[in-house]
Amino acid sequence: MSALTRSRLTDWTVVVPVLAVLVLAVTWNRDLPGYVIAVVAALLAGAVLAAVHHAEVVAHKVGEPYGSLVLAVAVTVIEVALIVTLMVSGGDKAQALARDTVFAAVMITCNGILGLSLLLGALRRGVAVFNPEGTGGALATVATLATLSLVVPSFTTSRPGPEFSPDQLAFAAVASLALYGLFVMVQTGRHRDYFLPVEAVGRPAGATSRAVAPARPAAGTAGRSVDATSRPAGDPDGPVDADGDGHADPPSTKAALLSLGLLLVALVAVVGDAKTVSPTIEAGVSAANLPQSFVGVIIALLVLLPETLAAARAARRGRVQISLNLALGSAMASIGLTIPAIAIASIWLDGPLLLGLGGTQLTLLALTVVAGVLTVVPGRATLLQGGVHLVLMAAFVFLAASP
After folding, report:
1. Who's near 199: CB < 8 A, 6+ residues apart?
2. d(CA 5, CA 258)
3. What is the H or E stretch that residue 138 is in?
4. pTM for this structure?
5. Is the peptide bond between 65 and the residue preceding it cis, with omega within 30 degrees of 0?
6. Which of 117, 69, 54, 112 is CA-nearest to residue 322?
7. CA neighbor of 69 nearest in space, from 149, 175, 181, 174
8. Among 8, 116, 10, which Cα is nearest to 57's?
9. Cα dihedral sign, 132-144-100-290
10. Distance between CA 191 and CA 109 in Å, rounded?
11. Residue of 92, 110, 42 lying closest to 329 (CA atoms)
């Protein structure tokens, strides 16, 4: 066995999913002491990170548009597994968990990740530059999905509460899936250039940075994934770029198959370990005198941690467009794939599925959309815009804990 093979087999992304499944087999359906629950929770978080890592490897191998779908489906499986597990164990208190989790994901991505990306990009160059056409289209899709799935149920009259009737839920699920699929086709097909990084051009002293249209892919790179794993050639911290075309070289078939197998193992571990720790999460939220809706915030923070780290890395390298793609793409996947999955799961779940937002949440969503539009339209942003979105993120977390 070569040193490279041994190193790969001892990598944490290999060890953690396997260890998480082994612990799951030992602890399944047993009353566990607190320290064991802590170990399972740590392995659950590690399995989530490992699952997203292996999904990115597989996505980079298969290329677009399938690569984006692989990553989105993997993240959605994790999110839906956590939601359904907690809804089953939470009873009536968890009827709004899907709404709380999806809304938290929208606020974290459109304010937390987006604001952090703009802040890091502006600190690096003075002004963060990006393509307003692609980013604006992504923001419009997120706003439409959020309105159809989370705002409209608060105003429909077929049911007494903030919930859809079965027909309305089916329409929202199909519309969400269709919009997400259309966006993936546009992003990876005809208008792929709108989602590539843009460069800052030289400017006179005292002038602001100006964005130019993104360069078209180099010859021979069509179909390759342009995501957080793609780095400019010569980046010492990036992955290998042997052919010097400006894109990370795709992994070998053997490495991709290994990641596919480990992705399945990690997803099994996430689903099982979530069931094990779900009572502890709910008990901890209650013990801290936090509202039950805060469980959704915890789920969203856990699921979106890998995207946050990837977006921050890209922004620090000056690739703000990639960061915004990750932020808004994650928001779209959270709504466009999670809502249809939850709609199907609601067939066998007891109790109503509450999706409509309350007054405070509606206000924060409206303010997020308005601020997002004003940020995106110019195609460049300063520290101010990043700070605005981060303050909105802080307001969301504070009001979620103290409604």
Report:
1. 129, 211, 212, 214, 215
2. 12
3. helix 132-146
4. 0.78
5. yes
6. 117
7. 181
8. 8
9. positive
10. 23
11. 110
Both structure tokens of 72: 């989105």
Those residues with Cβ within 8 angstroms of residue 107's Cβ, 6 or more apart along the chain or in another chain: 364, 365, 368, 392, 393, 396
Count Cβ atoms within 10 A of the Cβ of residue 385 and give its class: 0-12 exposed, 13-18 middle, 19 or more buried. buried
Task: Return the pLDDT at 92.
Answer: 67
**Does residue 304 sit in helix, strand or coil?**
helix
How far apart (Å, rounded) are the C-alpha atoms in residues 376 and 378? Answer: 6
Phi and psi (nearest 5°) for 211?
A: -90, 145
Other C-beta atoms lying within 10 Å of the C-beta of residue 185: 13
Q: What is the CATH number of domain 3-201+210-401?
A: 1.20.1420.30
Looking at residue 146, its pLDDT comes to 94
Phi/psi at 129 (nearest 5 deg)? -110, 145
Percentage, residues of the chain above pLDDT 90 = 25
Close Cβ partners of 263 (under 8 Å, ≥ 6 residues apart): 51, 54, 55, 58, 74
Distance, in Å, from the CA atom of 284 to the CA atom of 254, rounded to the nearest integer, reads: 42
Amino acid at 383: L
Instruction: Give the Cβ contact number of residue 171 at 10 Å.
Output: 15
Cα–Cα distance, 368 to 351 (Å, whole number): 31
Which residues of the chain have a pLDDT value below 70?
1-10, 63-69, 71-72, 89-93, 199-249
Task: Sketch the domain layout of the chain as residue ranges.
Answer: 3-201+210-401
- State the Cα–Cα distance between residues 151 and 154, nearest whole angstrom: 6
* Positive/negative CA dihedral, 20, 24, 25, 30: positive
Q: Within 13 Å of residue 92, how many CA atoms lie on the same side as its CB?
A: 0
User: Buried b vs exposed e over 109-146: b needs ≥16 C-beta within 10 Å?
Assistant: bbbbbbbbbbbbbbeeeebbbbbbbbbbbbbbbbbebb
Task: Name the maximum alpha-carbon separation found in the chain.
Answer: 68
Report the alpha-carbon distance of residue 396 to residue 403 in Å, rounded. 10
* Radius of gyration of the chain, Cα coordinates, nearest whole angstrom: 21
